[in-house]
């Protein structure tokens, strides 16, 4: 390795000579300067038998992370870390006890491939212009990012480019597929006030099996997702970006967020939960989108509320109602596009990623917008073809209830099912409310069981205690009591929906009173006369 370093050092020295020479004073003859500065690289390559490839952490334009850097990092950590004496350990996955070990900065490792030796080194971040003050928009642009340097003999150049590096990428894909931890990303304003992604491990508990909704609809969504996942060739054949857009709409508590978790589990994708309120402008939004990885779900929850906020900002807080509002929103979007592009996130900026020019950057992405009020959305968002699928999440009916009963109580039939089915048809109850009724019961049982078990399980290992505890809780669940409680809740809500709320009663009483008074005033003269 010493000899490699010598040669690489020699190359740098020669480059320095070249640089010095190019800065020679003017009086040195122009022609001599030209000849010598062209000779230096030639001499350098003649004497130096080694070549070098740099794999920087960020792409040339600093806009997005260089995936090759991640590939090399994982590959070296798993394949070559044995030969390194300086490593870093990080606990990345909450569910596993194995720390992730990576190379430390300035650590070198040697790899061999087809009889050729490869020397790798992780070079730390370096200041580009020491002493100079740089103002930059993108994070870390004033610094040279971290990079891996690969040094190899020049006779292996073809081998490195056409076989070794592709094999590193292949190995990286295998390793990440095996040990993948799904992550949930969200964006927040960083120190420099720029929005950046941060992530946590993500293991959503929901699956499609547990999702309470119309069975045909559920199967249709699952088939749609499967077709999308297998649709690489189809998308390239028809010249379409490999992405899919879903708009989930329905009242609160009908399972829109639960559905996102179920989709992430089904597809095994990461989730990016985009908070538009902490994004300053379209340019920042573009950077965030470009920083997302393939095989991911990009979520914007409550798009109607966000849209309102964006519009309010543009309106200067002017309040407009009804049809005017929709017209105004569109005008304001256009206005913002023309005049305010640099300082705002605009609807068209957002849509350019969903199905505009930028949607072709990246592949295998699912966009999910959720809303409680589809009627309030800008027509631009819901026009045919904008989102591939509109999914309505609706109130809990009997079929959906049976899914919840199976998940929460582990029952598929009961004497109260018929009554519950009828009541669910007559009321608008959300799956969240039904689930809550089933949960309350389980909690109560859990508490009783805990009291019973506390004495019995003294001294047992905690895992055994927990397992036994769960089993006993399950056994003790009293489905009769639980479903009877649900029937009561449903009856109550049926009565409440049949009786108009107090404010409506008061309003009606007030109107009747006004009407009587008006009649009295109009007919007053007559009455008076009549009385007279
Ligand atoms: N369709 C459903 N299937 C199974 N569980 C559900 C369903 N809908 C709601 N739940 C239960 O209710 C809870 C709340 O549901 P969720 O957060 O998914 O509703 P939401 O539609 O996203 O509501 P919001 O509009 O307020 O965000 C979930 O944690 C889940 O336990
Ligand atoms: Mg939600």
Give an overview in words.
The protein has 532 residues and is an alpha/beta fold. The protein folds into 4 domains: 49-181, no CATH class; 184-392, P-loop containing nucleotide triphosphate hydrolases (Rossmann fold, 3-Layer(aba) Sandwich), CATH 3.40.50.300; 398-498, no CATH class; 502-531. Helix content is 51%, strand content 15%. The protein has helices spanning 2-22, 30-47, 67-80, 157-178, 215-229, 232-238, 256-267, 282-290, 303-315, 322-339, 347-354, 379-382, 398-409, 417-426, 431-456, 462-476, 479-498, 502-522, 524-531, and strands at 50-56, 87-90, 100-103, 108-113, 116-123, 126-127, 143-144, 147-153, 183-189, 195-201, 243-249, 270-273, 296-300, 365-371, 389-392. The strands form 4 sheets. Strands 10-9-12-13-14-11-15 form a 7-stranded mixed sheet, sandwiched between helices. It has a 4-stranded antiparallel sheet with strand order 1-8-5-4, sandwiched between helices. The protein is elongated and about 115 Å long. The termini are far apart. The relative contact order is 0.07. The model is unreliable at 130-141, 314-339, 445-457 and 524-532 (pLDDT under 50). Bound molecules: adenosine-5'-triphosphate and magnesium ion (MG). Magnesium ion (MG) binds at residues 256-257, 301. Keywords: Magnesium. This is AAA+ ATPase domain-containing protein.
């Amino acid at each position: 390795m010493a000899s490699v370093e010598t040669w690489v050092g020699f190359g740098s020295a020669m480059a320095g000579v070249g640089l010095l020479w190019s800065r020679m004073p003017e009086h040195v003859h122009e022609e001599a300067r030209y000849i010598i500065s062209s000779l230096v690289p030639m001499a350098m390559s003649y004497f130096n038998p080694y070549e070098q490839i740099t794999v920087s952490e960020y792409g040339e334009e600093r806009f997005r992370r260089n995936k090759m850097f991640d590939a090399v990092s994982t590959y070296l950590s798993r394949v070559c870390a044995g030969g390194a004496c300086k490593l870093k350990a990080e606990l990345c996955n909450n569910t596993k006890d194995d720390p992730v070990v990576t190379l430390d900065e300035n650590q070198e490792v040697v790899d061999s491939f087809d009889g050729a030796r490869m020397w790798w080194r992780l070079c730390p971040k370096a200041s580009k212009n020491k002493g100079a003050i740089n103002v930059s928009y993108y994070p870390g642009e004033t610094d040279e990012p971290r990079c891996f340097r690969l040094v190899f003999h020049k006779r292996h150049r073809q081998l490195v480019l056409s076989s070794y590096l592709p094999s590193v990428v292949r190995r990286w894909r295998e390793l990440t597929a095996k040990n993948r931890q799904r992550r949930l990303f969200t964006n927040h304003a960083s120190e420099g006030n720029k929005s950046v992604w941060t992530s946590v491990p993500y293991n959503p508990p929901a699956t499609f099996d547990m999702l309470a909704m119309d069975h045909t609809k559920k199967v249709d969504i699952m088939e749609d997702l499967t077709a999308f996942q297998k649709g690489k060739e189809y998308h390239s054949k028809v010249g379409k970006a490999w992405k899919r857009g879903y708009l989930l709409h329905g009242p609160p508590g009908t399972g829109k967020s639960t559905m996102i978790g179920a989709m992430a589990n089904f597809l095994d994708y990461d989730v990016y939960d985009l908070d538009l309120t902490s994004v300053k402008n379209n340019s920042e939004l573009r950077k965030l989108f470009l920083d997302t990885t393939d095989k991911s779900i990009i979520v914007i929850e409550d798009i109607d509320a966000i849209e309102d906020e964006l519009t309010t900002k543009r309106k200067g807080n002017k309040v407009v109602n009804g049809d005017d509002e929709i017209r105004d929103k569109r005008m304001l979007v256009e206005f913002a596009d023309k005049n305010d592009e640099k300082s705002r996130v605009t609807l068209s900026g957002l849509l350019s990623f969903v199905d505009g020019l930028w949607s072709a950057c990246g592949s295998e992405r699912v966009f999910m917008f959720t809303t409680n009020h589809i009627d309030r959305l800008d027509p631009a968002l819901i026009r045919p073809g904008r989102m591939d699928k509109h999914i309505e999440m609706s109130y809990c009916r009997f079929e959906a209830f049976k899914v919840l009963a199976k998940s929460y109580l582990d029952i598929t039939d009961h004497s109260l099912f018929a009554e519950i089915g009828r009541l669910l048809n007559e009321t608008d109850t959300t799956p969240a409310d039904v689930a809550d009724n089933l949960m309350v019961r389980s909690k109560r049982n859990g508490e009783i069981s805990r009291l019973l078990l506390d004495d019995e399980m003294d001294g047992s290992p905690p895992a055994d205690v927990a397992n036994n505890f769960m089993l006993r809780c399950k056994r003790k669940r009293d489905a009769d009591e639980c479903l009877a409680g649900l029937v009561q809740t449903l009856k109550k809500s049926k009565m409440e929906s049949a009786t108009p709320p107090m404010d409506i009663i008061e309003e009606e009483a007030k109107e009747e009173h006004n009407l009587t008074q008006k009649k009295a005033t109009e007919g007053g003269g007559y009455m008076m006369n009549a009385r007279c």
